[in-house]
């Protein structure tokens, strides 16, 4: 039997020298006929990664930064040690308090010395003119940045732009007559779990180090920012690898090594790299503008739970629920309202809440895009003109108030939900800082292990709507919930809550 490959297809020839096995032939051919073509076309790892490493190592650089840190020249650090309670201990202690830092006799004109703090990281060259990509946290706060090539040639670097939200920074060096070796980006969308990848970096300041592994997962959200899209790999990544490239077997950059998951600080086989599909547009903007220019819709969103989906008459939980709309923002002008569920944006499905910010951010500014909404039990299409995200326009999350207790004869208890509600009295408005125009039932008690508390309802919240019906007080909450239970069509109810001026929706299962 021999194997021969042509045009990506595997051809199989069988040779049995003068021996006839009719039954065996039939079974063998039948067996081969059911082998999936994807299995036959799967790429095998090379016998050695040496050629690929030799090609890519010159493109990876070591980055060191220096930062001046003011220190206190505290002579107490060098004070002699005496037995506790001895007269010498009291004498030196009194002397240091009078003459040491912030002491009575300290000369305010005396400058305190500073030390040079150093950090090490990695980066890679993307343009022979001297454009280098690294992580923002590698160069954050640096007074001086040095870039060292594989041959130990060193250059001063300046920052072209940086983006803390994706942890990406772009640097520029002047290579002079030095010929730089640049690498290009690959398409991280084509990566599959199990594909081989190579990481090159500067772990622990040791210099160019090569490690290999596979893609362990894609699209990881590790709660580092609103646009998380990480490739998880088991290729060893350690301190100092930050900012280095993650290559595919074609030598293309498919990720920027950024984080590790470790309790000891060392590699335990779980590393994370910013996907190239997210990094490429950010890098392009940092090169051109020195900052990012992201699309902006002007909404605060929250996750669609199974309870919320049922309350809105949806078959399954998907999309992003609009909790608040920014005044004069693109969403407001497009007619998007609180309570709408965004199912699609600019031709892309919004499967989860976390997906929407990335899609919006990547959308070109100033264009009109279709937005598919779930409203009133059916899909509605609107057009929104995308604005530019500015930090001062972002809707900030309000701080939650700590649990507070209240004793009153006017409290209405909902034992099934673990809630205690009250009318919006002047005293409670003052106590919980609730505006005069906010009407509804105030949550004055929440059992910690109750259904409502577990889903996020807190003391001080104002329930303004139940099952999309406006309410004025606790009695209406009881009435609406009773009607829902009586009809028996739904097993959950939707609460619209005002929390310190911010609107959010919470779906609660009913007992």
Please give the structural blueprint:
Blueprint: E1 2-6, E2 9-13, H1 22-33, H2 37-41, H3 50-56, E3 60-70, H4 87-99, E4 114-127, E5 131-134, H5 136-139, E6 144-148, E7 154-163, E8 168-173, E9 196-201, E10 209-220, E11 230-233, E12 245-247, E13 253-260, E14 271-275, H6 276-289, E15 295-296, E16 299-303, H7 306-311, E17 320-325, H8 330-334, E18 341-345, E19 348-349, H9 355-362, E20 368-375, E21 378-385, E22 387-388, E23 412-414, E24 419-422, H10 426-432, E25 441-446, H11 451-454, E26 462-466, E27 469-470, H12 474-487, E28 492-499, E29 502-509
Antiparallel strand pairs: 1-2, 3-4, 3-6, 4-5, 5-8, 6-7, 7-8, 9-10, 9-12, 10-11, 11-14, 12-13, 13-14, 15-22, 16-17, 17-18, 18-19, 18-20, 20-21, 23-24, 24-25, 25-26, 26-27, 26-28, 28-29
Please give a structural write-up.
It is a single chain. This protein has 511 residues and is α+β, with helices and mostly antiparallel strands. The protein folds into four domains: 2-40, no CATH class; 50-73 and 115-292, Thrombin, subunit H (Beta Barrel); 295-393, Roll (Pdz3 Domain), CATH 2.30.42.10; 412-509, Pdz3 Domain (Roll). It is 19% helix and 34% strand. It is built from twelve helices and 29 strands. Strands 23, 24, 25, 26, 27, 28 and 29 form a seven-stranded antiparallel beta sheet that branches. The protein has a six-stranded antiparallel beta barrel with strand order 3-4-5-8-7-6. Strand 20 and strand 21 (378-385) form a beta hairpin. It is elongated and about 80 Å long. The protein starts with a strand and ends with a strand.
């Amino acid at each position: 039997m021999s194997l021969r490959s042509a045009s990506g297809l595997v051809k199989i020839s069988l040779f049995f020298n003068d021996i006839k096995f009719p039954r065996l032939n039939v079974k063998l051919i039948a067996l081969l006929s059911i082998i999936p073509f994807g299995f036959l076309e799967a790429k095998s790892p090379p016998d050695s990664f040496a050629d690929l490493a030799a090609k890519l190592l010159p493109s990876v650089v070591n980055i060191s930064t220096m930062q001046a840190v003011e220190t206190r020249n505290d002579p107490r650090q060098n004070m002699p040690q005496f037995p506790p309670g001895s007269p010498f201990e009291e004498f030196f202690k009194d002397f240091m308090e009078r003459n040491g830092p912030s002491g009575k006799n300290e000369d305010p004109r005396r400058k305190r010395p500073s030390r040079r703090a150093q950090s090490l990281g990695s980066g890679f060259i993307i343009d022979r003119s001297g454009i280098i990509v690294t992580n923002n946290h590698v160069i954050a706060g640096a007074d001086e940045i040095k870039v060292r090539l594989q041959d130990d040639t060193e250059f001063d670097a300046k920052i072209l732009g940086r983006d803390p939200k994706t942890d990406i920074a772009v640097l520029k060096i002047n290579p002079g007559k030095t010929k730089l070796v640049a690498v290009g980006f690959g398409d991280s969308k084509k990566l599959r779990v199990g594909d081989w990848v190579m990481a090159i970096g500067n772990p622990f300041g040791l210099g160019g180090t090569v490690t290999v592994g596979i893609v362990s997962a894609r699209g990881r959200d590790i709660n580092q920012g609103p646009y998380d899209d990480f490739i998880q790999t088991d290729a060893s990544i350690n301190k100092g690898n930050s900012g280095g490239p993650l290559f595919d077997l074609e030598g293309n950059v498919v990720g920027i090594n950024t984080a590790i998951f470790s309790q000891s600080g060392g590699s335990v086989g779980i590393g994370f790299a910013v996907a190239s599909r997210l990094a490429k547009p950010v890098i392009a903007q940092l090169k051109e503008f020195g900052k990012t220019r992201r699309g902006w819709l002007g909404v605060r969103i929250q996750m669609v739970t199974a309870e919320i989906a049922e309350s809105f008459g949806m078959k399954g939980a998907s999309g992003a629920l609009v909790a608040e709309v920014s005044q004069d923002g693109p969403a407001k002008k497009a007619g998007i309202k609180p309570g709408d569920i965004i199912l699609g944006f600019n031709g892309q499905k919004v499967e989860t809440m976390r997906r929407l910010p990335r899609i919006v951010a990547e959308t070109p500014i100033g264009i009109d895009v279709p937005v598919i909404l779930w409203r009133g039990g059916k899909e509605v299409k609107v057009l929104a003109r995308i604005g530019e995200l500015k930090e001062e326009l972002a809707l900030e999350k309000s701080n939650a108030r700590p649990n507070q207790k209240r004793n009153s004869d006017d409290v209405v208890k909902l034992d099934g939900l673990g809630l205690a509600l009250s009318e919006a009295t002047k005293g409670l408005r003052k106590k919980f800082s609730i505006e005069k125009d906010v009407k509804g039932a105030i949550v004055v008690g929440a059992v910690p292990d109750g259904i409502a508390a577990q889903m996020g309802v807190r003391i001080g919240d104002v329930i303004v709507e139940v099952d999309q019906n406006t309410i004025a007080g606790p009695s209406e909450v009881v009435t609406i919930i009773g009607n829902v239970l009586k009809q028996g069509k739904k097993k959950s109810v939707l609460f619209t809550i005002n929390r310190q001026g911010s609107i959010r929706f919470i779906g609660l299962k009913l007992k």
